[in-house]
Amino acid sequence: MTKDYLIERNGKKYEVVIGLEVHAQVLSESKLFSTSPTKFGSEPNTQVSLVDAAFPGMLPVINEFCIKQAIKTGIGLNAKINNKSIFDRKNYFYADLPQGYQISQYKDPIVGEGNVVVDLASGSKTIGIERLHLEQDAGKSIHDIDPKNTLVDLNRSGVALMEIVSKPDLRSPEEVNVYIKKLRSIMRYLGTCDGNMQEGSLRADVNVSVRKQGDDKYGTRCEIKNVNSIKFMQMAIEYEANRQVDILEEGGKIDQETRLFDTKKNETRSMRSKEDAHDYRYFPDPDLLPLEFNDEYVENIKKEIPELPDQKKSRFIEKFNLSPYEANILVSDLDISKYFEAVIENSDVKLSSNWITGELFALLNEKNLEITESPISAKNLSKLINLIKDGTISGKIAKTVFEMMAEGDKNPIEIVKEKGLKQQSDPNELEKLIEKVINDNQDKVKEYKSGKDKLFGFFVGQAMKVSEGKANPQLVNEILKKKLK
Amino acid sequence: MSNIIDLSLSELVSNIKSKKISSNEATLAYVERSKKSKNLNAYNEETFDAALKKANEFDSKPDFNKKLPGVPIAVKDLFCTKNIKTTASSKILNNFIPTYESTVTQNLWNDGSILLGKLNCDEFAMGSSNETSYFGNVISPIDKDLVPGGSSGGSASALAAKLTPATIGTDTGGSIRQPASFTGTVGLKPTYGSCSRYGIVAFASSLDQAGPMTRNVKDSALLLEVMSSFDNKDSTSVDFKRPMYSKELSKDIKGKKIGIPKEYRVEGMSEEIEKLWEDGKKYLKDCGAEIIDVSLPHTKFALPTYYIVAPAEASSNLARYDGVKYGFRTEGNNLIDMYEKTRSEGFGDEVKRRIMIGTYVLSSGYYDAYYLKAQKVRRLIKNDFSNVFQKVDAILTPSTPSSAFKIGEKSNDPVSMYLNDIFTVPVNLAGLPGISIPAGLDKKGYPLGLQIIGKSFDEQNILNIAYSMEDKINFKFNLKEWWMND
Q1: Where are the domains of chain B?
Q2: In sequence order, which residues have a C-beta less than 8 Å from that of residue B119 and are 6 or more positions away?
Q3: Nearest CB to A99 within list B319, B326, B362
Q4: What is the value of pTM for the model shown?
Q5: B7-255+462-473: what CATH class?
Q6: Domain total for chain A?
Q7: Tell me, what's the ipTM?
Q8: A57:B234 CB<8 A
Q9: Tens digit of each residue's pLDDT (9 = 90 or more) over A223-236
């Protein structure tokens, strides 16, 4: 059991209560209400239709694919899918909001309550999901190109977002980390969001409040807007929670407000107070009919749902006898799990798990690569593992082979052949080799026989050295023991 | 042969089809007459040269299978027309040239019609007298000081003055039927969902509907047939089997049950209107229809409901006119300053009034009391009609509570202006089809109209009833052409 995340001041302990509104970009070729493409990184204003730029008389038409993606995500969050939902207009003026309103869902979202199970060091915890709704993204205002003007790029305008609102069930920066990662993992399994935080496909508004440990009433919360990395979310929460505790300890009151996180100064700052909050004048968009579908529609989508991380984890534990910890690592990312399953198709499960989570992860980490960019293919890693398993090479030699494989995905069988790295397992050969070692080190033999047991390791080392590491260590041990009696 | 401009749309079509008149002759006749009629201020944009060129193209390669072969038509300046300035009669769009075509106008061109020009209207279709246009008020050919009605005032004026053989308008609360009534013409607002809203500058999305404005009922049927189509670019467009309205037009309305709603006998209604309505009933009886008294109990709430719902939607629909992307802009010190200056200078008073009303009724704290309540009342008004339509096939009412008024007479009294729409707005709120036909003259000699309201998508039925009545009414108005220049 790990320690709870609590903030201590003057002998009092404060609990931090966190809720997240995650904005996940729907993985879709075209936008929520128009046919424009959604390709990231395109030249400014090249992915913009007349609808996205809100020309007079232009009307939104729902992209059914995005609806299906939202339903899929809802299913992945074990959530209630609402057969009728309504698109509303959220009215406000901004240069990168061409319509003067954002089409969103307010009172009647497409997905209702659900939950996500996260694995913490202390065990698993269920985080409640309040709702998921669909909405349009805004464009981008660029302030730093022209000294006098703000430039607007509407490529993102109208791109579909899913806003996933959690219940205030998170209690620490670490829980936020695990929750976001789990959410991302589920959506990547489903193919509904690529979860790419660098490209802004996943961002969050973070609601933070504090209360004295044991209180059952929530404190007043502040919302930190639009944080785009897990690290920044954690930093923001830590700063914000401490700020709130300081205020309370000084006898002050928390003002409900919207804040922003300054990543350079590592602090949150007030953006606007509750009094200054926008009046968004939500009302149902008269250009769109209520979104309705029947149960059969949802059932058909359910058939397309792949095995999700939780199910895969259970399967890995049951079928492959992996520990929950190992299984967790292997299922956390869809591509990792795919890689793992490709390797174990022809290889030993335990060795595969060890090599992937050990050597391979270290290599990827060092080179800053995703598993999909791995220099060693699953096929070749599988071969390497088989070479270890059948005794062709030792684990130690395997590491050398692995390093060579990393330089361009070479076939380990060929490496072993080329470099003559095959393990020496012929007892006669080994006996000769060991006899030579004993003869060359008679003084050490004397010491050993007079009781210096530790020297056994020395003889093993010498044998390995002479064999250039190729001697089968198990056999070396056996023969040495016999000879040194 | 009579003068080209005196022919109805249907007559012109058959004359072109039988090669008695070329598209060029027809177009030239209307261009020349339009050029002599600038006093009416009916046009915002004239496309006469392009029209003549297209007419010649048509004549050189005529396709007489089209429903409107080479027929020139001027349209309300609320329809976006590709490469032709489209302003909604607002300063804020006064330099706006769309790169796209509205579905309804595209349907006209696809069926052989040719654009004569864009017709004046109230700014963003907000008005009942065509006095709110940035390009000045439109004058009715009926009389010098008279408004043509609104918001499709330019359309009504051009049609009545024979500057176009027919035209199209939009109707959010009566903007086709009221000006038709004021100018002695036929105006039809189709069922919501019949004509695509794609490419029409939006006023109030849940109420807006395009429709034909014509000299007679037969023309109305023909033009509706061309305009109406299912359009997947408009999510509120309805995919129903559209009849061949003009082909199926019939004067046989024997046994049809026509409802007379008692709530439309409003306080202070003039005897002329009473008599007009009575005459209407008599004509219907003469045609073999049965008159039944009915009740639409929530009628009195229709106008207040409309003046909450329509401005609410408008306040949001007009947010896109912000000076950022297109249209008029006044530079400012910062973004907010630019918005404020652009919108203050770009919108006229009536539009601003409605944006403010709309913003107010949607504001937190007022939403439930106004907007939400209005939506509930709208439902009750719809239910009223549904109940009545279980007993009757159509409803007969006056189109307006009075004939056309003088220019300036109501412009400082918005409420009395809004009261003009009292008989037309319930139809928009319920999404039903309604047609106004000329039915008589008041004592000043100004036209008055009767309105026939039908069930959803039952345009054929109200067209048939109107067609039968038209025959009995035999409406005549002696147009004096006082406005013409040489």
Answers
A1: 7-255+462-473
A2: B42, B43, B44, B74, B75, B76, B77, B152, B154, B155, B157, B158, B164, B167
A3: B319
A4: 0.91
A5: alpha beta
A6: 3
A7: 0.96
A8: no
A9: 999 999 999 999 99
